[in-house]
Amino acid sequence: MLSSPMTNGLTIPRTKKVATFVVINLAILASYGLYTLPGSFLPLYNLERGISVTLTSWIIAAVPLFYVLVCPVAAWMLNNNSSKTILLASSGIASIITFIFAGMGYIESNTVYLSLTAFLRVIQGVCAGVIDVVGFAVAARMFEGDVALVSAILQSTLNTAVAVSPFIGAILYEKFSFVAAFSGPGTLVAAVFLLGTVALYDVDCKNYTSTGENSKYSVGVKRWLLILFPAWHTAFAQILLNFYVPILAPYTEEAFGKDSIFAGICLFVSTIGNVLFAPIVGRFMDAYGPYITFVFSAVTLPLTYFFLGPANFIQGVVGASPFQLLVVLTLIGVQIPMACFPSLLIMQDIYKMYFRSLSQGANNFMTCTYCAAYGLGAFIGVISSGLLSQYMSFSEGTSTMAALGVLEMVVLLLFCRWAWTRKHDATCDEKEPIMGLAV
């Protein structure tokens, strides 16, 4: 890899590292907060306007869909442009979009309302994807020796937004109005933008590798599929996490007579365990490698999901109740970081089986794939929820997803078996062994 003319992440003064990391966390908190804000009240608001849950699920899914599509573009931008400029531009646009969204409550025509809502959600998805890819890449560049811990902290921030934002949105919507639910958070995003203009350091994440063995194009399609496969587990965990978002408020209202505030509480507890447990998972992976948590979550997450409905064969033991729902959502939230966090480290590790070093360009590419897995999972989860809700009850839908999780578990265990075999072969050839699997 050719030397960079800009300051290497490791030589940045500590105060600037900390300030930049804080701003990145705030930017991710704001972008994901706006992304998940309507989850607790938009389905009910749209039902009042005569808009179906299925159509609402497509509106909600617009963000993760375009989040996925923009991630490769964000990686390309990062390879060739200033990280600070990209982050500030994305944060500024996200703030403006939120204030425009607040005005949607004054539009009476459903056709105009749906068209503009879909367009604004697309822009939100683009901004969120760019902020996440650039934020993760910059943080990993600054703290190259603690990638797992830094990623865990960023994911804690992201999931704090997922946990808190729908709850705050529900309160603002119930106690004030649709307009207040967006204009309040939009003010906070504008404050993050202003802070970033002062405190954000321009960390160099450009790719200076033009040719050579570390170029992503020299790896080959088959190897890249193996390298990127761990990101699928992150995506599937997000499918399970987002599956119940569009149908939770209607379900709790019908089954338990609860309003959107209770739905917001449910979404809060489903991620609060994620937030609190994430740094512990990060430290564990730094010490013992990512494969243990990867396998553990593949087994336990789908089994826990059977209790969410609960499944018909469990209802004789565990019945549906508000308490049961809160407990199961908490357990799911605790397991999500064990499923999501290991993927980036495993991708980097498998890449190093083929090439001893990791170029910045390849790292940016894997970071964008890792971030895209979140959006892809959220998109599939929300859309499948809207589609299945037309034919299945809440219990039947969650049980179906749990059954698919069991199938995914089998595939992941086979993948880990392959990784172990590769580790053994690499050890015999005196190559660098797989992280966390060294004997």
Tally of strands? 0
- The proportion of strand residues reads under 5%
**Helix content class:** over 70%
Order of helix and strand elements from N to C terminus: HHHHHHHHHHHHHHHH
* DSSP summary: helix tally: 16
Instruction: Note the overall shape.
Output: globular
Spans of at least 5 consecutive residues with low confidence? 1-9, 210-217, 430-439
- Give the termini distance in whole angstroms: 31 Å
Major sheet attributes: none
Mean pLDDT: 77
Report on this model:
The protein is an all-alpha fold. It is 77% helix and 0% strand. It contains 16 helices and no strands. The protein has helices spanning 14-36, 42-48, 53-80, 83-102, 110-142, 147-175, 178-199, 221-228, 230-243, 245-256, 260-288, 291-305, 322-340, 342-354, 360-388, 394-428.
Secondary structure blueprint with pairings:
Layout: H1 14-36, H2 42-48, H3 53-80, H4 83-102, H5 110-142, H6 147-175, H7 178-199, H8 221-228, H9 230-243, H10 245-256, H11 260-288, H12 291-305, H13 322-340, H14 342-354, H15 360-388, H16 394-428
Helix pairs in contact: 1-4, 1-5, 1-6, 1-7, 3-5, 3-15, 4-5, 4-7, 5-15, 6-7, 6-11, 8-14, 9-13, 9-14, 9-15, 9-16, 10-11, 11-13, 12-13, 12-16, 14-15
